[in-house]
Amino acid sequence: MDSGIEKAKEFIINNLKEYIEISSKHVGEKDYKTVLQEKLQEKGNVKIEYKLIKEKGPDHDKIFVIEVSCNGKVLAYGEGKTKKSAEMEAAKQALDNKHNN
User: Phi, psi at residue 30, to the nearest 5°?
Assistant: First the structure.
């Protein structure tokens, strides 16, 4: 019975670790997607899209690749173990690119 509990505990930790890290790192701060949206909408209404363009790896350990675009122009790409974390990474990359241009 203990091994079943340990396996369940390990499964939960492995699958939720990234969510826990993301949610606990920036408590009270705006996330990258929100910041990007606010920056892009400063000059008016825009269409921001996050699109899944690729999935890599086995089902139990997938990596998602997301493309973020604004009004049809690709801004950046992001990878993550969840679609949400890949979207966040894409938004972060778009913000980094915007600051470097």
Answer: -75, 145
Cα–Cα distance measured from residue 79 to residue 82, given in angstroms and rounded to the nearest whole number:
8
Question: What is the CA angle 33-89-24, rounded to 5?
Answer: 75
| Residue type for position 86 | A
The residue extents of the domains of the chain are 29-100
- One CATH from 3.30.70.100, 3.30.160.20, 3.30.70.120, 3.40.50.620 for 29-100: 3.30.160.20
Report d(CA 70, CA 47) in Å as an integer.
Answer: 6
- pLDDT tens string 46-83: 999 999 999 999 988 999 999 999 999 999 999 999 99
Of the pLDDT bands very low, low, confident and very high (cuts 50, 70, 90), residue 27 is low
CA–CA distance from 67 to each of 84, 93, 101 (Å)?
12, 10, 19
How many CB atoms sit inside 10 A of residue 24's CB?
8
